[in-house]
Design brief:
About 70% of the residues lie in helices and about 0% in strands. By secondary structure, the protein is mainly alpha-helical. The protein folds into 2 domains: about 1-120, Serine Threonine Protein Phosphatase 5, Tetratricopeptide repeat (Alpha Horseshoe), CATH 1.25.40; about 170-275, Alpha Horseshoe (Serine Threonine Protein Phosphatase 5, Tetratricopeptide repeat).
């Protein structure tokens, strides 16, 4: 069992006993208390949903008893408490110090996960600047690659996929805006980014369909056929494929008459990024 899990369980038990005596906080100067007493008070504050006060107590251990085992325990609990308080910058700072001081510790993976969450939990809508999303992806990837045996790898992978999909959705939002405004070349660039860089996300089929719309708007029939070819190969059962073939009905040969070898060649070229 990692220290963090044991610490949380221990705090639940300890605070249930000490809450009566310490619920109003430590009244004497903190220097007069032991590291464990300060640590326990941090647990009391957590149990009372006073995450900011808890973080303050856990941080004081690092200041007053920097080389004690309680300082180490307090540091990761401080990162946890700051995150509970939604003070993401402070949580990230505490988590990074833990990683720097104890890189091989069993809870280093959790510290890295908290660091990633400090970015991830601020991803609240597609319309915001996506710098936080990119930082979340980078930090989550560190959890996955550097701490493969950590129990936080699985939730990190799940959040990585969601953040990746979120980033793809942002590209689609911008691409649709350009398409609506008639800026077809700019729209094509956005949709191609989704197809080439975010092929595993749920936006990929729509991106291909929007490419068909954009290419046909510019009179680029061969390029539109290329996009439909990929839809047929990978997303034939989607509504986007049906809509794209309908768009081509008055422009190019029906999909059933397209030569199979030609389709295969176009598909390979397109996947390689050699857009015709």
């Amino acid at each position: 069992m990692s220290f963090f899990k044991a610490a949380v369980l221990g705090l639940v038990s300890a605070t249930s006993v000490s809450c009566t005596n310490m619920s109003t906080g430590l009244t004497e100067p903190l220097e007069s208390y032991s590291a464990k007493e300060i640590y326990d008070q941090g647990g009391v504050e957590l149990s009372n949903a006073n995450a900011e006060d808890a973080a303050r107590y856990f941080g004081e251990i690092e200041r007053l008893y920097p080389y004690s085992k309680w300082a180490k325990r307090g540091l990761i609990m401080q990162a946890f408490s700051f995150h509970k308080a939604k003070d993401y910058n402070s949580s990230r700072s505490a988590a990074q110090r833990y990683i720097d001081f104890f890189p091989a510790d069993v809870d280093a993976g959790y510290a890295q996960y908290l660091l990633a969450l400090s970015y991830y939990d601020q991803i609240d809508d597609v319309g915001r600047d996506q710098g936080l999303t990119i930082k979340a992806l980078q930090a989550l990837q560190v959890v996955i690659e550097r701490y493969p045996s950590s129990k936080y790898v699985k939730p990190a992978q799940t959040k990585f996929d969601l953040a990746f999909d979120h980033l793809s959705a942002k590209e689609m939002e911008i691409g649709r805006y350009y398409l609506q405004k008639g800026h077809y070349t700019a729209a094509i660039n956005r949709f191609k980014t989704v197809v080439e860089d975010f092929r595993t996300t749920r936006q990929a089929p729509e991106a291909l369909h929007r490419l068909v719309e954009s290419y046909l708007s510019l009179g680029l029939k061969a390029e539109a056929q290329s996009a439909v070819s990929i839809l047929k190969q990978e997303y034939k059962n989607t509504e986007w494929y049906k809509q794209s073939t309908a768009l081509l009905a008055d422009e190019v040969l029906a999909k059933d008459t397209l030569d199979g070898n030609w389709l295969s060649q176009i598909y390979r070229q397109t996947i390689k990024g050699e857009w015709l």
